[in-house]
Design a protein that fits this description.
DNA polymerase, domain 1, 7-stranded mixed β-sheet, about 40% helix
């Protein structure tokens, strides 16, 4: 069982890296990818928690924006964590999150929904990359909504009047940084229309030219028809096809291992990195 896309509480998940490792092993996951948003801060604890019987694939999910401001998430896996250029890109992405959240807090307050940036920080685990899920958690703590899911459905979705876009690298820039660091780049849930604007099939050509390795096809936020269309795109372009849970602990309803990558596709993807960086004990 190969699940290449999960999150810990060092971004917007709720499990610690150790808890996630233990859960994955208990559920029979044989290869687990951890890709927290714009950070590698979970790598050390996850590596220390690993035990024989499971392979660990370390990475990061980089928040990107196309030139026409479509939000894209790029999974960078198996890259060299010591690559300074990629770490600088991740740090810049993290730094943009605070001004964005402050603007969203102001819009909410103007509408009579009282919340402060201090409330957001209080809802963010120590060392975590702060983001909209933590604003959602603050709204839950203040009684404005009953759950993180309700916060996104009612207040924080991409078409909400309280939504603020963010400064981020383009997908091409992110792919180039991942590849320069020796890793592989997989675009996450690119046809998930329920999240907002999505890419078209024609948008993949420059990504492939930049070095895109794979496309996340099997994901709960993509309908059956979206998956079929995306699978056809991936095959036409010669891309590795992945599936994953995008597990966030209690932060989302996604279940660990609910979508998986085939061993054959994973073997192809791993071979595209410049070194064998899978962690084993």
């Amino acid at each position: 069982m190969i699940d290449l896309h999960t999150h810990t509480n060092l971004s917007d998940g709720t499990d610690t890296p150790r808890e996630l490792i233990n859960l994955a092993m208990a559920q029979g996951i044989t290869t687990l990818g951890i890709s927290d948003h714009d950070t590698t801060s979970s790598w050390e604890e996850a590596t220390n928690a690993l035990r024989p019987g499971m392979d660990l694939v370390l990475g990061a999910e980089i928040s990107c924006l196309t030139e026409n401001e479509i939000s894209v998430h790029m999974l960078g896996l198996l890259f060299d964590s010591e690559n300074q250029a990629l770490q600088d890109l991740l740090e810049e992405s993290r730094d943009q999150r605070i001004p964005r959240l402050k603007k969203m807090v102001t819009l909410l307050n103007d509408a009579g929904i009282t919340v402060s940036i201090d409330d957001v920080h209080a809802a963010t685990p120590a060392g975590a990359t702060v983001g909209r899920p933590h604003l959602a958690d603050a709204l839950v703590a203040l009684g404005h909504v009953s759950s993180r899911g309700e916060a996104f459905t009612e207040l924080l979705h991409n078409d909400s009047p309280y939504y603020v876009s963010h400064i981020a690298p383009t997908p091409v820039t992110a792919i180039a940084a991942i590849k320069a660091a020796g890793g592989v780049a997989v675009i996450a849930h690119p046809f998930a229309s329920q999240r907002g604007k999505i890419l078209s099939a024609q948008d993949f050509a420059p990504l492939v030219a930049a070095g895109l390795n794979g496309i996340e096809v099997d994901h709960r936020d993509q309908s059956a028809s979206e998956r079929d269309n995306l699978r056809a795109v991936a095959r036409e372009l010669g891309m590795v096809i992945t599936g994953s849970s995008d597990y966030h602990g209690n932060g989302k309803i996604n279940r660990l291992g609910e979508h998986l990558t085939s061993p054959q596709e994973w073997e192809k993807l791993e071979a595209m990195a410049t070194a064998r960086r899978v962690v084993r004990k």
